[in-house]
Structures are given as C-alpha cells and as structure tokens.
C-alpha cells in the first residue's frame, strides 16, 4: 500500500490508559506499513518513529515537536489526533509532569534592573490613604451604632447590678445567663419586648441599665458580662414586664442558645433586625424572641447549641473554631 | 502622570494586530479578544462615525448601504488607514477593560511583520498611543509565534517558524532569542480567498463575495493532492444572467484555485532554507519546521510543505493564537529584564 494515499480508518481498540506509542504501533501494523514507510512519509528518521512508538520522548525534541509528530503521525494513520494527544498527556501526568511544559520557552540571562523607587513610593501613598479611609469609615460607623446609654432610673432594688444595656434599639435586652436552671428560665421567660417599648411601662427601669453602669459609651460586651452576672435579677425584672409585652409577643418564636465553648455570634430575625451581637463564654445561655427564620452567624459553630421553641435545632457542625451561618426555622 | 495613574487600573496587553483578525492576550487571563479587524464607518454630514467594530462590522462587509462603509484598516500586515486603526484599537482596548471605571491606559506589545519599514512601525506605535496606550513595545511576528508555539528560542539551536497570516506569510529562523534570517511574503489567507473568487468567476461565470470565499476555504479548502475530497454548495451571482445561481465546488477545484499562492509560500520557505547558515539548517532538518497562524489551518498544508522540502512540518497547537500568546510571554520577560526583543 502506498503511504501517499490516505488510509482507511484504522481506529484502534484503544483501552483507557494505553500509551500513545502502543496505539500508533498497533494502527501502523493494521495498516500494514513498516517503520520505514512511515519515516519516509513523515520525512523523519526511523529512529524517531521508533522512539515515538516506544514512548521514549527524551530522544526527541521539545514538547512542541513531540505533540506535532504525534499529531502528524496519527493523521497519517487516520486516527483521531486528540485520542493520541490525550494518551500522551496521560503519560506526562504519570511521569509527574503537567499537561503543559512549565518552563517558559523564552529565557533571557540578563540581570534584572534595579527597580525604581517611584513606584514603591506611589504604592506606599496609596496604602496609607487606604488605611486612613478605612479608619475614618470604621470610626464613623462605630459612632452611629454606639449610642449613649439612656438616663438611668434610680430604681435599682430589684437589679442592683443589672445589665448595663447600651440602649441599642435592635437588642431585645432579654437574654439571660441561667446555667443553674435553664429549663426554668425558658418556661419563665418573659415577653422580651424591645427596650424601646418596655421603657414606656411603669417598670421599664427594671429592664434598664443600673446607675452603676453610667458610662454613656458602655460597649455591648459589658452588657453581656453584666447580664451573665445578674441573670436572676433580670429574670425577675423581665417577669414584671410580662403584662405589657405578653399579648404582643404571643406569636413570636423563641430561640435559646447555649454555649460550650467561647463563640462570637450575631442573630438577625426575619425582618433583618439584629437581635444580638456578642462574644459568648462557655456555659452562657441566651434566649431571644423574634420572628423566625432567624439567621445565626456563629464564630465557633462547634461550641453552640440551638433550641427553637423548645425543640433542639440540629445543624451540620464544622470543626472547632470554624465560622458558620445557620438559618433557624 | 494621569496616564500612569490610569495605568494602575489597566492590564498589560499583547496585541496581534493582524490583517484578518485582532487578538488580545492579557497576562493571567489568556486570550480575551479575538475579533475580525473590520470597522464599519457611517458617513453623516461630512463626518465619519464608527458604526461597528469587529464581528459586528464583519457581518456588514459587502452588505452595507451607501452611507456605511465596512473597511479593513490593515492591508498586507501593515496599517492602511491610520485613523480607523486607532479607533479600532481604542474600541478593543476598552472592550477588554469593561469592568474598569477609568479610561484604560495599558502598556501594550504589538507584533509587526519582520520586514516592516520604520514608517510602518511608527504608524503602529502612534496608533496604539492614540488609542490610549501609555507604552508601546513591538516584537517581530515570527518571534512571537515561535514563543507562543513553545519553541525553545533561547537555545543555541536553530528553530524555523512559518506564520501564515491573513495578509502576509512570515518565515524566520530563530536562535538565541533573535531572528537570524527572516522573510515576509505578501501571501496569506486574503490571497487564498481572492484566488477562490477568481477561480469561481473563471470556471463558473459567477461572482462570489470574500466572505463566501473564506467559508469555502475553511470548509473544503486543502493544499495537498492526496487529501480526502469534500464538497460544498455555493450561491453566487451569474455574470451572464445577472441572477443568483447555485453550484457545487469540491476540494480538488479549490486546490487548483490555490496553486498560485501556495507555490509562493513554498518558494519562500525553500528560499529561507537555502539562506540559513548550515549549522542552523541542520538543526531545522533534525527537528522540523513549525507552522502557525490561521493559514496553518488549511487542510494538509503541512503535508504539502513537507513533500516539497523533504523536512518534517508540524502545525502548532492552536495556531491562530500563537502570536498573541507568545507576545504575552515576551512582554513578561521584557518587563522583568527591561530589554527589547526586536532584532531590527
């Protein structure tokens, strides 16, 4: 058979993982062509044809030429060049090489010039400007969210060391730390009306910060610590709010969170109101009311347990120390 | 200063400003643009307004009303219409910076034919600057093609590359990061299309457009006599009757039509081999010659050249994008080492 004529399709029964050389050799033998015929047709030496069939690529030139030879050879045998090239790539991968040569074909052995300082200075200026802009934005944001604490009511008999509520309007002010008797706390939990509404009631001051927490910029973390210390007082205080808030909050969902490890959290309700943002300590519990679904963002999700309306809420816990956002519904 | 500030928000681009297609390569993103080098201009009250650029404009070629002209601003690899080239480059540079809020001002590397004159090089530089580039570097097309094809151009060993573009065919022998011998012939894809149009007129008495000729070339065109015969149905306007007529062309006829331009390329390749220094010629004979550019996609052109020269010819992987990709790699290296790769 003349090598000049295109051959009939000799698609070999290519088993997956078969080497390109073996595929080419079997197709050549099926076409009854000798190595010399192929070498003459491709204008290559017989040594090169043998090297291709034996997958001895180190005897050939660079990767570009090897791919080119394989493509031309497979076209001569009427094989699909992509099948052969895929097999070649597989061979490269098995040899621990990537699909493409890693080294750039262009190498220049001229020492790199010293970098001018101009660019460096511009980047420093841009970086400083960025830091300044970020700090201005951060401080501005902080002043917006941290409002001065309201004027304290002197009534402090019930909660002498009550929570130092920072007056944040979105906070329900009803979380309690009740490690001793969590079930009781849940059952006795009051309406947890927002501070704004409870402040109108005659006993509003009971749920308000004590005079002792007179610092007008009292951060929220202080509030939670104080809450932890005076959980029982707050319980009593909250129970006094029940007559006003009970009717309004009958339809609200109740969520209870307890912590076995230190964990930051942020809770938002279905309206998007932030109910709580705090760093919780091991052993602390937190009760919140609002409209489900709640979005709970947990800094250390492995250390948190959630109950919704008395039912435990299960979620896939990531490893300790990992953040997770959970929708509780 | 403003250009430098805008440059901080722009990518470095490698542009293959070809007669047929313009390709743009961005470092880290690969080829981001591949559009025909065609601009449609609307004439309105004595003013010229750019109506469409690229693919959209190519669709208009040969189908425009009197007040719109679809033109190809590059001819034979060099700028034929300076202002339109500038507008086209501006459009393409903006297109690859669509996400940017600022007007882009990138550093660009443009490939030029190896035998282009100083005036032609300057025209390319200035049109790129006019399009908003803050720095323009040039590289010879075959050098970029060789780098893009993955040839080890830095070694002390000869590599030969034949880049068959739309307007020109560039042939170069490369060694040690430089072009040892280069030649450029004004034969390329456009000449193939032209040859097909002439053949159809002579043998079928019908006129077909360039776009139809290009489609015929891509679908049934071949360069070697032993190739599989394929057929295509074509419609053209019959010259005698003046009405559109349908006829069938096969690949043997197209091969006959392409004989003249193909012979020109074969002759140029043989001439390059004759003039290569013997050591480099031996290296080329040992490893073979690499074909790049859109013309390398013509069926069995590697077999034709191989038969004519007795050397192995291989088609590079993704030959259309070799110049743009190679330009990108060259730009990276030029940037690191602060050197120019232009030999002349």
Explained architecture:
In chain A, strands 4-1-6-7 form a four-stranded antiparallel beta sheet, with no helix packed on it. Chain A has a four-stranded antiparallel beta sheet with strand order 3-2-5-8. Chain A is elongated and about 90 Å long. With 329 residues, chain A is an alpha+beta fold. Chain A is 36% helix and 13% strand. The termini of chain A are far apart. In chain A, strand 2 and strand 3 form a beta hairpin. With 344 residues, chain B is of the alpha+beta class. Chain B is built from twelve helices and 18 strands. In chain B, the strands form five sheets. Chain B has a five-stranded mixed beta sheet with strand order 3-2-1-9-10, with helices on both faces. A five-stranded mixed beta sheet of chain B has the order 13-12-11-17-18, with helices on both faces. Chain B has a three-stranded antiparallel beta sheet with strand order 5-4-6. The model of chain B has no long low-confidence stretch (mean pLDDT 89). Chains A and B meet through helix 4 of A and helix 5, strand 18 and helix 12 of B.
């Amino acid at each position: 058979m003349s090598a000049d004529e295109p051959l009939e399709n000799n698609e070999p029964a290519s088993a997956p993982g078969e080497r390109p050389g073996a595929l080419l050799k079997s197709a050549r033998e099926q076409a009854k062509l000798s190595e010399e015929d192929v070498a003459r047709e491709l204008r290559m030496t017989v040594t090169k044809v043998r090297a291709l069939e034996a997958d001895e690529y180190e005897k050939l030139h660079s990767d570009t030429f090897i791919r080119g030879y394989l493509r031309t050879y497979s076209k001569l045998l009427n094989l699909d060049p992509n099948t052969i090239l895929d097999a070649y790539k597989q061979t490269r991968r098995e040899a621990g090489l990537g699909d493409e040569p890693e080294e750039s074909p262009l190498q220049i052995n001229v020492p790199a010039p010293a970098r001018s300082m101009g660019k460096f200075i511009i980047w420093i200026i841009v970086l400083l400007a960025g830091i300044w802009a970020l700090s201005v934005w951060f401080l501005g944001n902080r002043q917006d969210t941290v409002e001065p604490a309201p004027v304290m009511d002197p009534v402090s008999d019930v909660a002498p060391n009550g929570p130092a509520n920072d007056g944040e309007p979105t906070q329900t002010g009803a979380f309690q730390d009740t490690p001793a008797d969590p079930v009781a706390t849940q059952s006795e939990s009051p309406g947890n009306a927002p501070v704004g509404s409870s402040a109108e009631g005659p006993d509003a001051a009971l749920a308000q910060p004590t005079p002792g927490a007179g610092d007008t910029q009292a951060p929220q973390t202080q509030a939670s610590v104080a809450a932890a210390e005076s959980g029982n007082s707050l319980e009593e205080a909250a129970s006094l709010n029940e007559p006003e808030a009970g009717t309004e909050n009958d339809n609200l969902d109740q969520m209870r969170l307890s912590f076995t490890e230190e964990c930051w959290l942020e809770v938002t309700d279905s309206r998007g109101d932030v109910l709580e943002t705090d760093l919780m300590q091991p052993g602390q519990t937190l009760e919140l009311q609002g409209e489900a679904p709640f979005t709970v963002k947990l800094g250390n999700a492995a250390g948190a347990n959630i109950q919704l309306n008395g039912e435990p809420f299960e979620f896939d816990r990531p490893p300790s120390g990992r953040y997770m956002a959970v929708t509780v519904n | 200063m403003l250009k430098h500030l805008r440059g901080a928000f722009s990518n470095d681009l490698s542009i293959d400003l070809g007669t047929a297609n313009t390709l743009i390569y961005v470092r880290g993103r690969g080829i981001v643009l591949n559009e025909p080098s065609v601009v449609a201009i609307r004439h309105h009250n004595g003013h010229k307004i750019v109506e469409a650029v690229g693919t959209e404009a190519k669709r208009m070629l040969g189908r425009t009303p009197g007040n719109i002209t679809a033109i190809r601003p590059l001819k034979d690899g060099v700028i034929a219409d300076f202002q339109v080239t500038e507008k086209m480059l501006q459009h393409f540079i903006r297109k690859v910076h669509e996400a940017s809020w600022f007007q882009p001002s990138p550093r660009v590397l443009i490939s030029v034919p190896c035998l282009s004159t100083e005036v032609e090089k300057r025209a390319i530089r200035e049109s790129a600057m006019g399009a908003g580039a803050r720095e323009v570097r040039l590289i010879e097309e075959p050098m970029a093609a060789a780098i893009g094809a993955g040839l080890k151009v830095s070694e002390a060993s000869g590599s030969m590359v034949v880049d068959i573009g739309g307007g020109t065919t560039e042939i170069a022998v490369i060694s040690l990061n430089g072009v040892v011998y280069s030649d450029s012939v004004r034969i390329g894809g456009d000449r193939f299309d032209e040859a097909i149009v002439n053949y159809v007129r002579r043998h079928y008495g019908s006129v077909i457009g360039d776009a139809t000729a290009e489609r015929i070339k891509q679908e049934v065109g071949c360069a070697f006599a032993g190739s599989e015969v394929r057929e295509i149905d074509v419609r053209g306007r019959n010259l005698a009757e003046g009405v559109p007529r349908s006829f069938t062309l096969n690949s043997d006829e197209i091969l006959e039509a392409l004989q003249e331009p193909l012979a020109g390329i074969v002759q140029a390749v043989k001439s390059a081999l004759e003039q290569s220094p013997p050591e480099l010629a031996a290296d080329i004979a040992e490893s073979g010659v690499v074909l790049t550019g859109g013309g390398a996609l013509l069926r069995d052109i590697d077999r034709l050249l191989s038969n004519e020269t007795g050397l192995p010819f291989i088609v590079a992987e993704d030959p259309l994008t070799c110049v743009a990709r190679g330009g990108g790699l060259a730009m990276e290296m030029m940037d690191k080492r602060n050197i120019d790769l232009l030999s002349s």
